[in-house]
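If you are new to this repository, start here. Below is one unmodified record pulled from the training split, so you can see the exact layout before writing a loader.
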Amino acid sequence: MLIGYMRVSTDTQNLDLQEDALHRAGCEKIFKDIASGAKSDRPGLDGCLAYLRDGADTLVVWKSDRLGRSLRHLIEIIESLKIRRIGFKSLTEGLMDTTTADGALVFGIFALLAQHERARLQERTMAGLHAARARGRFGGRPVKFTDEKKQLAKTLLNDPNYTIKEVSRHLQVSASTLYHYHSQIRGLPKTPSGAV
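And here is the target side for that same chain:
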């Protein structure tokens, strides 16, 4: 069975073009979303993917960019369909059809390119971190709770006139940060339930 999916980016755009093309292609059921391509919350797509039957259906879109937020996202979706033995077909892009040998080859190449790009990105990231460490720089957020602040926190928290909330506001750190360092600050009460 052919199952259609369509999406437009804004309320002002019209789904008619995609819907007509999906009906002409023979889609028996069509799911839709009106959402930005970058937005991850797409109930229509979620419903469509859940509806597709393993080994029996083909997902049809008017154009591949209606399905994935990016090439990587598109490939992830196609790979998950492949595992479930579900076909994929784009009506306006001839080689975007995993039900044909040529289309399956194209997606195989795309998947390899995406995997290669991920590996290159990891290599560049690691090389940058090594270079920074060699120069004495280390990644991560700057430490807000310095040794001086810890010492001041210890003094203030041992004073019964100050609450944890007041101390955290004065030191410009969260109360959960104070609790997190409770083992290093003598006199801080036990971590409350739910605090980190």
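Two things worth knowing about this chain: Strands lie at 2-8, 29-34, 58-61, 87-90. The helical segments are 16-25, 43-51, 71-83, 101-134, 147-157, 164-171, 175-180.
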